[in-house]
Design goal:
Elements: H1 3-19, H2 24-36, E1 40-43, H3 50-60, E2 65-69, H4 77-80, E3 81-86, E4 91-96, E5 103-107, H5 114-126, E6 128-131, E7 134-137, E8 143-148, H6 161-164, E9 169-172, H7 178-199, H8 216-227, H9 233-247, E10 260-262, H10 266-282, H11 290-301, E11 306-307, H12 309-313, H13 318-328
Parallel strand pairs: 1-8, 1-9, 2-5, 5-8
Antiparallel strand pairs: 3-4, 6-7, 10-11
Helix pairs in contact: 1-2, 1-3, 2-10, 8-10, 9-10, 10-11, 11-13
């Protein structure tokens, strides 16, 4: 394990925790997504620092950031870019869209229609976009963090299962504790004071700025280091058995029969392994433990399992089902 790279990531983690109070799990999942080279879907009520989280991450690494507010009138070209006609010579020139940035915030992704979601799907899955007959490659560092509001459903377009499967993790966040809320008030006052001073041309407190940004070279080296984390063959089989339990639950426990309509795809097993490796690496371990797999399983699986009507009628949600699956699959 490269201790210098781990120290750089710890500095980035501390920066995120200073800027996103009360959402330590979200900070960790952002770093795991970076290390596992995947995309993140974050679900939570308004005002829980979803936008602030990805902006804080962008401030801590070398790369550019772009936020796209998804609306019903958004067009695919608003994401991908389009060919611009040049009347002076009769030619076309390609104008790049927001997807050519390193970090993308797709805010309220479920408010955009299917064509826009399809354009984002190609970018997420293939790391490229196609305009007419030409294909353009996206940057090597490319991470999409999409958000959706679970409260408002009117005027939304639910994401299809095929696109949900492209997200490495679905992270659900909740309100912070009340003692953390007091710290948020203090931080908000300090930021308002800095903004007022900046508007007056006065020097501001630079403590919120990362002293040394994580370079893309460091990030790619860390990804390679994560892939070298030791994973026992028994734990690899454990991951396979967890995924098998989502497809054939009654084979593991007869009481689970009829609760799952569709299980998780093979993409889930890849995601679970890579996320478990990344979590172990961030914790300073040179091996993956069963706890690494179990702690990340809900985020990896909750959007990849489709419950049956019987399970929903009984009031069961996906997280409760995953709890049951982890109980019936033997831990090595």
């Amino acid at each position: 394990m490269n201790t210098e790279l781990l120290a750089a990531f710890n500095q980035l983690k501390n920066h995120l925790n200073e800027q996103i109070l009360g959402q330590a799990d979200l900070s960790q999942r952002l770093l795991i997504a970076l290390l596992a080279d995947g995309h993140l879907l974050v679900e939570g009520a308004p005002g829980l620092a979803k936008t602030r989280a990805i902006k804080a991450l962008a401030d801590g690494i070398e790369g550019d950031f772009h936020r796209v507010q998804f609306t019903p009138d958004l067009l695919p070209a608003d994401l991908t870019g389009t060919d611009i006609y040049r009347p002076q010579d009769g030619s076309f020139i390609f104008q790049q869209g927001p997807l050519f940035h390193n970090l993308i915030l797709a805010d309220e992704i479920n408010r955009a229609p299917a064509k826009v979601q399809a354009a984002l799907l190609e970018a997420m899955a293939e790391r490229q976009i196609t305009i007419g007959s030409k294909t353009y490659t996206l940057p090597p560092l490319f991470l999409v963090m999409a958000t959706q509001n679970p409260i408002e459903q009117e005027g939304t377009y639910p994401l299809p299962e095929a696109q949900l499967d492209r997200f490495l993790m679905l992270v659900k966040i909740d309100y912070p504790a009340l003692e953390v809320e007091r710290q948020i008030l203090t931080l908000a006052r300090e930021e308002a004071r800095n903004l007022t001073q900046a508007q007056q041309g006065k020097p501001v407190d630079a403590s919120a700025v990362v002293s040394e940004k994580l370079s893309q070279a460091q990030l790619f080296s860390a990804r390679e280091d994560v892939l070298n984390i030791h994973l026992e063959a028994s734990l690899e089989e454990y991951i396979v058995q967890i995924l098998g339990a989502t497809r054939y639950p009654s084979a593991y426990d007869p009481s689970l029969e009829g609760l799952i309509q569709y299980g998780a795809s093979p993409r889930a097993s890849i995601a679970l392994e890579r996320c478990a490796r990344a979590r172990a690496w961030l914790n300073g371990q040179d091996y993956v433990s069963p706890d690494d797999i179990q702690s990340i399983a809900h985020d990896v699986l909750r959007h990849r399992i489709l419950l049956s009507f019987e399970a929903e009628a009984d009031g069961m949600d996906t997280d409760q089902l995953i709890d049951k699956l982890l109980q019936v699959v033997p831990v090595p």
